[in-house]
Amino acid sequence: MNPLVSVVIPAYNAGKYIRETIDSIIGQTYKEIEVIIVDDGSTDSTYEICVEYSAKYPNVKLLNHKNRINKGVSISRKYAVDHAQGDFIAFCDSDDIMQPNKIESQLEAFRRHKGAVLVHSGMSMFGPDREFCEKFEESMTYARGESRYNLLHSDHWLTKNKILNSTVMVRSEYIKRIDFAFKQVFQYEDWALWILLGQRGDFVFIPDKLTRYRCHDTSATSRVISNELVRWYSFLELYFVLFKKLSLPRFFERLEIVARITLVLYKIFTLYPRHSWPDERLIG
User: Fold this and answer.
1) Straight-line distance from the first to the last Cα atom of the chain, in angstroms, rounded to the nearest whole number
2) CA–CA separation, 217 vs 20, rounded Å?
3) Where are the domains of the chain?
4) What's the DSSP call for residue 140?
5) What is the mean pLDDT of residues 192-212?
6) How far is residue 231's CA from residue 148's CA, in Å, rounded to a whole number?
7) Does domain 5-217 have CATH number 1.20.1600.10?
8) Per-residue pLDDT tens digits for 93-126
9) pLDDT at position 211, please?
């Protein structure tokens, strides 16, 4: 019997792109799929578009928070995971595109790597700045070939996230045991999840470019890249979340997190004048 795969899409004001995203999932070569969209209090056409798809396709399910309020991508993603029925859960941001064979290829990787917790893949980035897209795509390539590894044993687990959210598929039995949601202000909520999942076992990278990642001015990635101070605050939020949520005792991992928190605080309070700190226009 083929396993069911739940594809999770948190969506906030994604009306411009979400049709293309959903169409790429419905058009997968692997058909045992349910699509779970959480509308996170959108004020544009996102909700209406998702209602249209859920009415047309029985396997597309639309959720929203009470009173349709905005709770952020971390809480929305956890809400979808809690409602997922699949044996595997794949993530997709509301502006990205899955290649037709993405889910099929990742399930094959899970069959090759018994006991692996997570499989992520290569990606192709597209947007108006071709040179930037090429550099970012190269920086997110974990290895040249297929690779099985333990994230917490890598030398970059706290300094560089090389796992793009929309390239990920994970076993439900692992992610459903983890309380990974938090009320976030900055970014890196997906990075926190990968580290928490890394406590459960090995990850697998496959180099096939199975996701098309869209870069645009309003994307979370652009926001972090364009503002160094927002990036430092994102690191700080990540480290505090991990310190709280990592399984005990993990003494050495916690010690390294404390060292990173100290470094980031030094950067923020000594290298930046007070008037350059983020305000509600940056963190809203």
Assistant:
1) 45
2) 18
3) 5-217, 224-283
4) T
5) 97
6) 29
7) no
8) 999 999 999 999 999 999 999 999 999 999 998 8
9) 97
